Amino acid sequence: MPIRRSKVLVKWIFENQHKFQTIRCCSSSLRYKVLEENTQAHQEHVAPLMSTPDEKPRPQLTPDISFKREDLQVRLAAPYQLIPKPETVELGFGKYFTDHMMKINYHKQLGGWQKPEITPFENLSIHPAAKALHYAIQLFEGLKAYRGVDDKIRLFRPELNMERMNLAAARSGLPTFDGNELIQCISRLIQIDQEWVPHSETSTLYIRPTLIASEATFGIMAPESALLFVIMSPVSAYYKAGGDGAVSIFADPAVVRAFPGGVGNRKVGSNYGPTIEATARAAKLGHQQVLWLFGPNHELTEVGAMNIFMVHINDQGDKQLSTPPLNGLILPGVTRRSIIELASQWEDLTVKEEVITMERVIELNKKGRLLEMFGAGTAVVISPISRVGFLDHDINIPTMKQSQPVFQRVKDTLLAIQYGHLEHPFAKVIS
What we know:
The chain is of the alpha+beta class.
């Protein structure tokens, strides 16, 4: 009988060994939480003897809703871990990375968001079954830090990036967070790596917050574990444009970037990977980017990863700046919104969000009423367009022939705000 019981016990242990493994892996984290809770309970017990009337209770360190800037932990890189800084002329876009990065884990079973931490730049360790690798449950943002003429470092409307990132997180089943807390954490990261912000008005520090599903299961459902990390890269020009700075784009009606009800209006990685092949085909035809069209009317949506704008003479004889509406097919760009808000204050220009079709572009161009086209985005700021290839048409856009082009006025205004030449509420100074 003892032998039989032993066999049953061995079988039970064999079948349930995964449970022991889970307990072993989580024990340190759970022990930390128990110690933390005991400490907090002790503090609450002695509070009447120590507290002052103005003292506020310390928030939970691992809240269900968001991480906190005040819990940020910093581990600085050792001298041997510091990365040689490249010359500004060598930068390109996204080739070099700063000395530090930020990581914030999310584990539903441990109460949600964990403490944010800044560490030396390093590779990530991720399980091969992580949902981000299999189902593209991941998203990212892009914003920049600018070194102004006064040597102060500025961010441009970062609250809009946080708002957009949370919308993408909600759409992807990923945890949301307090955007202001992340801005404060990013500001600290920039302060630590501040010498990576180029001393130049032609280069910036590009900031890439990314949120991925790290849970290691094959089930297609909302992940219970995630990782938010931020890396930074000093960058210069994104596109290699022509001699006059303008780009040529190819409008291919055979490919679609986004569709109604999809995620074209969210900054998720799955929007970008499938564009590579179409962009490569456009490059073989002598174009820098793809103009993404939609529907039987060939509506303009985006150009590359940029929002698109058109300047023309409208039916009333006024100069008008037009851009496609936010109908779910395009990304609500921070630069796009800023252009609309700034240009709407200019009395000599009508600003309108409206559907633009290729037929309309061709018609306006034939009548000499199409003046300019340009793309806009964080990476490129403003990119003038000089040519559009579409079916059997080769449409030359007179963008660079205008005596006082709108695109240049928009670009100069944005850069003046970003580099501190013009004091404006759009710019957030990092103290």
